[in-house]
């Protein structure tokens, strides 16, 4: 069973990564990447090679990410997320998010019922179903090498299971290696970093809150409107019946929000990332109501966590230098530069 899952996911990632690789080529054509330069790394005397990318409002200096640096950054990301959330400046915002979530709990059941009713009205099957396109036997194991969603709701829900973000990262990584594009490589590293940080954060919160998923609440002998809460469930009970305890907050939406935030931060001139990404998030949110995986009150905190994580992670690996004015015809920037023989200086860059 484990071999089957690994082979299926690996083949699925590979096929879609090829598709995204060709899409990424279009991004390069619009990136206006300059030649390699040597600059000081932030406020230190350390010299690193960087690539300059022009955007409408700034010049972005990208450094090549170190192998597996994203994994080393995860503890710092989680600490910074907590520090940011409970800072004096953000406490009122956190209060609004939690209060809004509490109010939504009061209408969770009718909203879920309405979502399911609308799904029936438009003939949107809520069942999670897939169809096998390619299967074979290896050493006595039956392997489903390629599966696709078998209904529209499953296709939408498929986007939120985490593999979509990994496929985007895989496509960008393939492109970054071939084209020696530091921005694509950094974006890949940031997405991987965000997925790991969010996975740990949301799992920690789920194991504290212990909220029951809608489909579990409706299947129980004594259904509780908006589901039951079992704070701090025992690890054994949690693992035995995960869906009885893991609804709050939604890891699906947190991951989707972080991925969109990271992509938009690294490609600010791409006007399609946010509208397309947020539209898909809306569809994903509805699909999870329709199939009974989440309540709507699971969403506000998840979106806030995903956005915060995306902003923290996307601040790594590059420097943003604002342009003087926003005229398309002329820009200038002053930056540290490497002059040779371990000496530093200043470089004035002007474009007319």
Automatic annotation (TrEMBL):
Domain Phosphatidic acid phosphatase type 2/haloperoxidase: 193-314
Residues spanning the membrane: 6-25
Top-level taxon in the UniProt lineage: Bacteria
Keywords: Membrane, Transmembrane, Transmembrane helix
SUPFAM superfamilies the UniProt entry points to: Acid phosphatase/Vanadium-dependent haloperoxidase (SSF48317)
Keyword Transmembrane helix: yes
Cell membrane is among the record's keywords: no
Name listed for the protein in its UniProt record: Phosphoesterase, PA-phosphatase related
Organism: Aquipluma nitroreducens
